[in-house]
Design a protein that fits this description.
By secondary structure, the protein is of the alpha+beta class. Helix content is about 25%, strand content about 25%. It has helices at about 15-20, 40-50, 55, 60-65, 90-95, 175-180, 195-205, 235-245, 260-265, 290-295, 305-320, 400-410; strands at about 25, 80-85, 105-115, 125-140, 145-155, 160-170, 225-230, 325-330, 340-355, 355-370, 375-380. β4 and β5 (about 145-155) form a beta hairpin. About 35% of the residues are buried.
């Protein structure tokens, strides 16, 4: 690990060059939280973001849909995937030693999903993860930021491409992170909710409906249509606990006590000491306000992945069982703090019918109680017509190796 004298905690030309040399090296992922699509696993995952859609939770319901079985929620690949990375060469192992951006704040900024096939009950999947790019960008607060792009490529047990997930993480010097958190045009306030405000939130929960088995036909959708809003919040630590039950730990490898010690011996940086000098996961900034403040963030906050599932929740409830979510892209531009409430709103912006595929384009975003757009996004949904069912889209490649080559070329 580097020291203050040789660039620890700062962005240098050398750190960017080290990062670029990692492009295309397949990275082994930790053991998945879930190894096989199962009703208990999909139900816990869906419940973790407040979704009780029987398509994802009830095997008997799934048998009577066009899919013929229980279907995993769109974002379920977050907690699945046996690593498909081949053994590293000696040169690759050397390139992967240490972190080019050690000591920097790292924040998930963009996530994009493309869906090609459903994961059905009983199926397993493999994942191939690699860095596909790094960009040197100026911060609006001064200085540099490193935008690191990773692709996660998923296939099912038959080798068929299921999902492509592309993520961008911003690595920024700590002073830039503090300036980012303190420069909002709206001063942060964490005042108690009034009874009237809570009643307004509950009314939205009570009004939720789901399209479900009733098809939403392409012919019936018009540009300007709004999807029914979803509300999530006020966000509590309990929500994070329930989320982790379905999602797993993700960053810190799973396991407590002695198992955590084994990981800590290999990667002590994942367990910085808390205020009592006890090593604890870096992820605790999501539930421990003291850790967030140490990093220049005024309050602990959610995961970007949570908001991604909130967006898909609104979309899948709107589109119904017979439709297909093809693409979702979103940008996490503001923190969503504990105690914040998020409204998910979407509007149809375009309809495209071409080559037998009927696309509905949707602008969909998360908004907080301060009136700030925290996560703007876009989605493409494939809808059936009255005389034609949705056909699943063709993936950009037929196997993981070809798909990896295409992803690297995409960002070259």
């Amino acid at each position: 690990m580097s020291t203050d004298a040789d660039g620890y905690g700062t962005l240098t030309d050398a750190s960017f060059e080290r990062s670029r040399r990692r492009i295309g090296i397949p990275l082994r992922t930790p053991p998945p939280h879930v190894t096989e699509v199962h009703a208990d696993a999909t139900r816990h995952f869906a419940w973790g973001y407040g979704d009780d859609n029987p398509l994802f939770c009830d095997p008997e319901y799934g048998k009577n849909t066009r899919w013929g079985a229980l279907v995993a929620p769109p974002n379920f690949t977050y907690c699945m995937g046996d690593s498909a990375a081949p053994p590293l060469t000696a040169e690759q192992k050397q390139e992967l030693k240490g972190d080019p951006f050690a000591g920097l704040g790292s924040y998930q900024a963009v996530m994009e999903f493309e869906y090609y096939r459903p994961l059905l009950a009983g199926e397993r999947c493999q994942v191939l993860r690699t860095q596909v790019g790094v960009q040197d960008k100026a911060s609006r607060f001064g200085g540099r930021t490193a935008h690191v792009l990773h692709s996660y490529l998923y296939t099912n047990g038959h080798g068929q491409v299921v999902t492509v997930r592309r993520g961008t993480w911003i690595n920024a010097e700590r002073h830039t992170s503090r300036e980012r958190s303190s420069s909002s045009g709206t001063p942060l306030t964490f005042e108690p909710y009034t009874a009237e405000q809570l009643a307004e939130i509950d009314a939205i929960y009570d009004a939720e409906t789901r399209r479900g088995a009733q098809p939403r036909y392409f012919e019936d959708v018009q540009v300007g249509d709004e999807i029914q809003p979803r509300v999530k919040g006020p966000l509590t630590i309990t929500d994070l606990v329930v989320w982790h039950i379905g999602w797993g730990m993700q960053l810190t490898p799973p396991g407590a006590f002695g198992m955590a010690r084994k990981v800590r011996k290999k990667a002590p940086g994942l367990y910085p000491p808390n205020q009592r000098n006890i090593p604890d996961t870096v992820q605790r900034l999501h539930w421990e306000p003291e850790r967030a403040k140490e990093l220049g963030i005024p309050m602990n906050y959610d995961y970007g992945g949570m908001r991604e599932t909130w967006l898909t929740h609104a979309l899948t409830d709107w589109m119904g069982d017979d439709a297909w979510l093809l693409r979702l892209r979103c940008e996490h531009r503001k923190f969503n703090y504990i105690g914040d409430t998020t409204w998910v709103r979407g509007t149809v912006t375009d309809k495209v019918s071409e080559g037998g595929r009927n696309e509905v384009h949707i602008a969909i975003s998360c908004w907080n109680q301060r009136g700030e757009e925290t996560t703007p996004g876009t989605a493409v949904v494939l809808l059936p017509t009255r005389d034609r069912a949705v056909s699943l889209p063709e993936p950009p490649a037929d196997n993981l190796e070809e798909l990896l080559t295409a992803e690297i070329a995409r960002f070259a």
